[in-house]
Amino acid sequence: MTEEQTPEEHAPLNGRSSTGESRERVSVTAVAHGKINLHLGVSDLREDGYHDLHSVFQSVSLKEQVRLVEVASGEEETMTVAGHDAHLVPTDRSNLAWRAVEAVQQLVFDAGAEVAPVSVHIDKGVPVAGGMAGGSADAAAALVAAVEFYFHRHPASNHLPAPSQQQQHAIASGLGADVPFCVLGGTALGVGRGDELASVMAGGQFHWALATDKRGLSTPKVFAQLDKQREQSSQGMRPDVRAGDTAELMRALISGDPEQLAPTLINDLQAPAISLMPSLRATLLAAKKAGALAAIVSGSGPTVAMLCRDAEHAVDVATTVSVEGKASATTTCSSPAGAARLLDGHDETSSHS
């Protein structure tokens, strides 16, 4: 039994397998990483109520870990969440991780195989409601874990052919616009809803200080505020400032030089996020005073990502912003990180990204 295994995981199932032999419960763990939008351009509202996005994502070392554990006959399926602000995460079927598992279970059911019940545990390492795709990372990790659990590990369904990459992408896209990137990881250009992805070359590693705000921001409300501001711009009431092309950003990424990357960071959702949470202005100003190369609201906010020269500089900037009292909490991370992936017993007890 590894340090991360619970007695329930290690215990045998009630009854016997189809071969008549007792066996331990099937348990699978996967991780996926949060993200920062280095560039986020948002179109005007479409007739269908959505926006086209033009985004450059980069995965960060902060990660979500999702564990699926087989439930014995007569036991209840449960979801539990641990980590920072875990109490803010829903544990009912609205949770994206549950929905990812259910989507894979539907494939098993449609193929005529028995669907083994599972419980889900999430260990959170990405800020909740912070614009860094923590919930989407949960879904990505749950998707990877569920495909492994049902199509490769569980004896009732491991004879079935696993879903193709295209099928898994369709499931991810159906769960949310950021989920496909959280599966892919690395650095990518996203268009459409942000789920049509192409990997992007990036040299070296970038270091960030992050300032979080426990109040969170609603993504739909931030987009609605953007629409309101765009309407005001059309009436000449405010300047219409929008993200341009990504050519300079792409060159900076290839160089691996944070000094070149800094002036290319832009986010069309930053202004509406600040409008809804004016204290973000003070956080951005504190980041500048602390010596960050650049600071930007991540996604729909309210997390502020502060680009730094190196890991030591990131710690200094995070500490200074924290001392100034301009964030609920601060931390540091690096980018890019990898794709969503399975963990073995050794990985589960380690802290590498």
TrEMBL record:
The active site is at residues 35, 178. It catalyses: 4-CDP-2-C-methyl-D-erythritol + ATP = 4-CDP-2-C-methyl-D-erythritol 2-phosphate + ADP + H(+). Residues 95-186 form the GHMP kinase N-terminal domain. ATP binds at residues 127-137. One of its GO terms (molecular function) is ATP binding. Belongs to the GHMP kinase family. IspE subfamily. This is 4-diphosphocytidyl-2-C-methyl-D-erythritol kinase. It comes from Corynebacterium urogenitale. The gene is ispE.
